[in-house]
Amino acid sequence: MPPRTPREPALGPVRPAPDDDPALNLEWFRPDPRPRLYRTYGVGVAMILAGALLCGWAFLGLRAPGPEEGRAAIVMIVGLLLTAGGMLLMVRRVLLVLADDTCLVLRVDGLRFDRAGARTLVPWTAIDRVEAVGDRLRIETDDPRLGVVEIGTRFTDLSAGEMARRIGETRRRALMGLLPRAR
What we know:
By secondary structure, the chain is α+β, with helices and mostly antiparallel strands. It has two domains: 6-32 and 101-175, Roll (PH-domain like); 35-98. Helices cover 42% and strands 22% of the residues. It has helices at residues 34-63, 68-98, 160-175, and strands at residues 6-7, 25-29, 103-107, 110-115, 118-123, 127-133, 136-141, 148-151. Strand 4 and strand 5 (118-123) form a beta hairpin. Helix 1 (34-63) runs antiparallel to helix 2 (68-98). The chain is rod-shaped. It starts with 5 loop residues before the first strand and ends in an 8-residue tail after the last helix.
């Protein structure tokens, strides 16, 4: 058997069950968008503030007649472009972050990870061990097509350790036959 290598399940080598009945879903988790939004807000606000300061300086320069008027007009245009660019950057980036369809679903038939339009379904019987390694979720399987699956996505209000505990708990219940049956 070839050695297992950790990877992010972006391409989904195992096809999900053809039945995508919501009754199969036990719990689902979305990624935490806050870190990506904070970076966006930081850059956008910095651009807006820089543009406002440039516009203020240019306004004072325009009020004083003389050779500075041409330079002040150019600075005013740059300031207005920075301000508008900062606002457009923030709106566009926030829409992209919030449109992310990544999710982790604990199902009756296994663990499903959806990312970038691809789905990876790991049956409960194929999972050997689930653990948190730092801020990543590591799922070791006995399926040679999957190997070791590492998920680096941070889910809303859950640490990797808490997510590993929930997955392990659901896996134990599934292997003991304590989960509800699919219709």
